[in-house]
Amino acid sequence: MWSWFQLRFQLSISVPSASNKRVNNFSFISISRSKFKRLDFRGFYIMALQKDDEFVCAATVRIHGHKVAEMPLVATAFKYRRQGMCQVLVHELEKMLSQLHVERLVLPAISERSELWQSLFGFSEMSSAERLELLRFPFLGFQGTTMFQKILSKIIPRMEMRGKFAGAS
């Protein structure tokens, strides 16, 4: 059982590390511990979208109670890009978080992806006041990124998303 888990974990982290050249060693995020909150990576989950035995898209997620969840890393395997697979993954994550009564989902985005997160995924840039409100949570952030959020109250399943998801499995 443990070796099966390790194999699945390694497969799920291969998608982000292969498709995001800025991250040299992805595995540290899920296994590192620290007495400093900003360096403590415990509590992360990996959500992955699969097609047969192949990982299509993966994201790291950490839930901080009902107030907020963070998704600091998300990536799609190269051959599945521009097919809406990341949208499927994020939409399913939003539905799950809504069912858990999580109020909002936050993520750090590089400037080159800001427009994408706003127009395609419905995120908005967090104001200084909103960031201060969530300061007590140890979010994983990266230098040169901007924090975005999406309020998750009443995420309604969209038929086109369910259709794409059914075709991806």
TrEMBL record:
Gene3D superfamilies: 3.40.630.30. GO terms for molecular function: transcription corepressor activity. Residues 31-150 form the Increased DNA methylation 1 C-terminal domain. This is Increased DNA methylation 1. Pfam families: IDM1_C. It comes from Vitis vinifera.
